[in-house]
Fold this sequence. Notes:
The protein is α/β, with parallel strands linked by helices. Helix content is 39%, strand content 6%. It is flat, with a radius of gyration of 45 Å.
Amino acid sequence: MSEEETTENKPASAGEEVPPLNESPPKSTEETPAAAPEPANEEPAIIAFDAPTSGSTPGKKQVDDSPPIPLEQAVSYDNPAADPRKMRRIIAEDPEWTLATVPLLSELTMENIISNFPQNPILKDVAKKTPPLPGKYQTQILGKLSTDVPLEITANMIDAEEYWKRCCDSKWPVCDISKYGGSWKRLFFERQLQEMIESFIPGTSDVSLLKNYLTLVGKFIVRVDIQQLLPPIREPTKDDGDVSDTGSDAGDVLENDSHFDFNEILQLLPNMEEFSVVYGVNGCLLNFEWNLFLFTTTDCLNLSKFVQKCTQLKKLAVQRSKVDDEKVRVLIKHMLSHPSLEELDFSFNKIGDKGARAIGKLLNHNRIKNLNLLDNQIGPHGMAAIAHALKKPTHLKHLNLRLNRLGDEGAQSLCVALLENATVETLNIAANEITEQTSQFIAQLIVSNKTICEIDLSCNQLGTDGGKQLQEAMESNTQITKLELKLAKCGQESEYCINKMLDRNLQEKMKDEEERFLSYYKPPKAQPPTGGSKPRTQASRRQASRAAAAATKAN
């Protein structure tokens, strides 16, 4: 190769001037010396440009009088990537910068909406002032929206369960959504209301805060579950320092010290159906006083009026509140004509025979389906009053009398009453001092009653002979699927045989339910095709083939 060609192909040195990008090389006015002749077989690659000029006619090929440019030089001008020296001029200063880091306009808009959401909430057309956002953008906004946005904005605007789930998780480590109808929004509102009432101190706390909260979320409240109520704070008297420990344990309480009155918020709970309350304090430890665990007469009157006015209430539970005979009679007096009450729970109280008589009257004047009297003081006479009510038409299906004082007399009167009853399905009379004398009555109940499906007789003294009587009764029973005999001393053989019969009844019940389900939900019959002839079956095809074969033989 000649010396001139070698000089031409060398890259420009640092001192030499490099022609600017996207510009054609300057035309030389002077004649360039003739290049050395190249071999005939290797012709240099020449490129010609057809660029339209001003005033030219489109479609016609323009003729360029400039001399042709070698391919290497044309590539270096039109494609800077071919020359690494020129590529350095267009590389960004940040080597990690890419076009993907530039946010989309929609993302910037959503970030702006989220940051300004408390001042300008834009999500959906609540007040019909602004058009709602598309669904995909609403989902993205709610996924990033802060859980600290005031309820005045979010309560009526946001229904997405994902947002309220994040609110619940940020406030409580453990959340059981099954108690709230599977709704995270209900869980958040009802649990926050529970905390506000449980920390309310009568005479000290401001009830307006509670009313303002219920004004926003009251229509979403369905279940109110209060596990403690604080009493009012009493000012210390001069004689308090002289009271001994014995005097304090005797019960230095005032009947006029009332807890929170729920009548103040009744009008703000239009959809409440379940109400549960405990008149006591949790975790008092060394601050124990008797007045912390007292259901006063004023509390009883306030609660009675509250239940009577709450006509949509379906479940009432007053647990662990020392409700005695007098107070339960006042409560039931206001519930006799309640239109919708179905469940009543007075468990862990001090209801005796007089209170049981009032409860028996309630069963004949109301639609109670579930009655829970667990751990009370009901004896044989009180049980006789309830049994008398069960002989008449009632709606009761579930009866729990566990941990009472029925004895043989009360249990026998109950079994006799249930022989004429056709509504009770579950019965719990465990731990009631029932002995072998009542086993015969229970066996007769198992044979004759056709509606009871579950019976709990655990923690009684039925004895081996009683177990055998129950075993013989279960042989002819087909509807009982649960019969608890733990710690009843019925004998292992009798318990084993009874469990086998219970399994048999359970299997038959499951088969009946499956047949009933299939009878209600039969698969739809296949519809014949509407157009054309009906499709041929395999038998019809065989007949057609035989007829065709016979016709060919005849011919």
